[in-house]
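Inputs:
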Amino acid sequence: MPKIIPVPDELSKPFWDAVNEKRLLLQNCTVCDRLQYPPRQACLSCGSAEKLEWKDVEGRGHVSTYIVIEDGRLNRRMPDQPYNLALITLDQDPSINFYSNLPGVPPYEVPVGAAVQVIFEEVGPDQLIHEWQVVG
Amino acid sequence: MGVWEHRGMVAVAGFGHSPVDRRWDETSMDKTLGAYSMLACDMAMKDAGVTPDQIDGVICCESHIAGNSGGTSSTWAPRPYFDAPYDSEWGLTLINAEWLVKQMEMPNVKYAPSNVPTIGEMMGLAAQSVGDGLCTTCLVIYPTGNLEGRYRRGGENAEDYAKEARQWTVPWGNHGGNDFINIFPHNQYCLKYGGTHDDLAPFVINQHRNGLLTPWGYNASSGMVQLTDEDYVNSRYILNPLRIFDCDRPVNASAAYLVTTAERARDMRQPPVYVLNHSQHNFTQRTTQPDLDEIEDWTDRAARRMYEGAGLGPADVDIFNPYDGYSVMSQFFLEAFQWHGVKRGDAFAFYADDIRVEGPHPFSSSGGNLGNGRTRTAMYTDSIEQLRGSAGPRQVTVRAETALAAFTTPSSGGWMMFGKHPS
């Protein structure tokens, strides 16, 4: 069963456009020199909106922890149950995290602490999402 | 910030609970959310010994907690409505102050704000409003609705697309909610401090035990049997390792509290339970998912704020009723507020000690949501009863002169400190 399709809005469009080009593009505050994800109207640290820019980041991270969704509420994902939902920290800034279903990793067999790299998965017509794959 | 300016000058003088049903059966007009809210208000007024004409403030949550994603479990419509006053959704699955004031014939209400959030904030709003003089005798009503169908399985959870904030969570399976918010930090907690998910079993089982000692609660009034360790560890998973018994049970019910000035409360039917402080918070998460560090920071900040405003410290708190809608969040509150000296990483050992109400560490004497159903009010009611000395078989044997109660998640909600004495 396919995943649920994100709907970009004005704020998130640059991010999803980049994902569709297989790039990971995060907000970065040039005042704080701090990455931000998900995107916001202003920097969470200094409140500046003008100093937020988009920055390509290296899609490498680690598996922090995970759960297995056995009885979730999303209709479209129910046929996939049970499936992994892992928390990925970004190596470039570990305070940034992402969700991942870790494609290719059987449920319950998630290697906590393992290195991962970003991949891109098609979830709808002309729409990719960022996913993460265990490396090594 | 300092001590709350109305400390000890506001009091809770009454409370009332409707029956707690699993769902509204959609035909019994004496069991609608409206009927149950009116019943709860009537009980609260009778408890305090006041009449409807004395009420000049009504604070009522307009949500029914099933929320936008409630789907079939949240709204009765679209179907033909009943005769007035049930000729719209109001009174069936939604309640507001305007509908209640009209039905209950309270002619002197001058303060009835709309769009008030949950019980966690409402109790604080009532205390502050009475303290500030916006009203003197205020009913706080918190309805919690539930209809046939799987809870929150409709609405946006049935859609193929994820908009707004959900675009960052739903594609991977996180539909949003406190189960997801807390289960990841809970896993990190187990890794950091040692322990396993099943170390929650003594806490969950004790919540059920306390619930069975609460006559109005779902478990006691529905003939539930005591949960055992075997039941718990063999129960099915929802978000593995989160089990079904780690989650509260959605119910159809309503509760009401009467908040007034301390001066007036002293002339009412029950001994006043004074409000020593209230505090609310709404922390902003840094990224997709709060982690353990963030959760511990938020709860530490909430504890500091509450203690400062109450002019009290951890050793002063006799009754501690944090929120437990999902069992995995309660340890964060317990450790942040350092109740009975519990520090970070100590919760599982504390749970394994004697936390029964008749023991030395009567943690969460209410039984909370896990023991009573998803009313989100047991924490407040038990705190009031413990300080009155009217908690019956739940009455603690330790000192009961102060109580902390909350409906709050680590990120948002509210706390309230009660006192048997005004200072």
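The first helix of chain B runs from residue 33 to 48. Flag for discussion at group meeting.
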